[in-house]
Design brief:
By secondary structure, the protein is α/β, with parallel strands linked by helices. Helix content is 43%, strand content 23%. The protein contains 7 helices and 9 strands. The strands form 2 sheets. It has a 5-stranded parallel beta sheet with strand order 2-7-1-8-9, sandwiched between helices. It has a 4-stranded mixed beta sheet with strand order 4-3-6-5. β5 and β6 form a beta hairpin. It is globular, with a radius of gyration of 17 Å. The model has no long low-confidence stretch (mean pLDDT 93).
């Protein structure tokens, strides 16, 4: 069986990254794309089960795994609220032939690419401009003006990381961006 590879997606908020990833996973099952099951220190919600949606750990267990360098990437969102991806889980999924998808921030994306090198493809989804990003964020009607300004200033910082990714796809037209992403992934997987 052919080993799976890693597909890393990063983008500023409002770039359309999640829309593109969901489209690829739904419309192109032949790509065999799967999210890695992450670890978290938050409690299960609703019907979530350990080992299905997440691996639920205590903050102590999570910190122990950090000290043993067991994570591909992790983040402390709030004090003792961690999220992260275990190296062992990525290995298990790629050994099973799955192409593991990461939807991460720009620093996480760069770190994963560095760790996995040629076995990973890093894709940066870029908005056509900061002005267009502003229009999209305002159009969503989900954030206050202050939050939109925070997201835009973060986006300007995140855009400086684009050259560190293997591929930059400008999402000016969603269908074109989806096709460009699909073509890029197919070329990478068929190498």
């Amino acid at each position: 069986m052919k080993k799976g590879k890693l597909l890393i997606f990063s983008a500023p908020s409002g770039s359309g990254k999640s829309t593109i990833v969901q489209w690829l996973m739904k419309e192109h099952p032949e790509l065999n794309m799967h999210f890695s099951i992450s670890c978290t220190t938050r409690a299960p919600r609703g019907t979530e089960k350990h080992g299905v949606e997440y691996f639920f750990l205590t903050p102590e267990e999570f910190k122990e795994k950090i000290s043993r360098e067991e994570f591909v990437e992790y983040e402390e969102v709030y004090t003792d609220k961690f999220y992260g991806t275990l190296k062992s889980q990525v290995t298990k999924q790629t050994e099973a032939g799955e192409n593991v998808v990461f939807d991460v921030d720009v620093k996480g994306g760069c770190n994963i690419k560095e760790m996995y090198g040629e076995n990973a493809l890093s894709i940066f989804i870029q908005p056509p401009s900061v002005e267009e990003l502003r229009r999209r964020l305002v159009g969503r009607n989900t954030d206050s003006p202050e939050v939109i300004e925070q997201r835009l200033s973060k986006a300007e910082y995140e855009l400086t990381f684009a050259p560190r990714f293997d591929v930059v796809i400008v999402n000016d037209n969603l269908q074109e961006a989806q096709q460009n992403t699909l073509t890029t992934i197919l070329e990478f997987l068929n190498k």
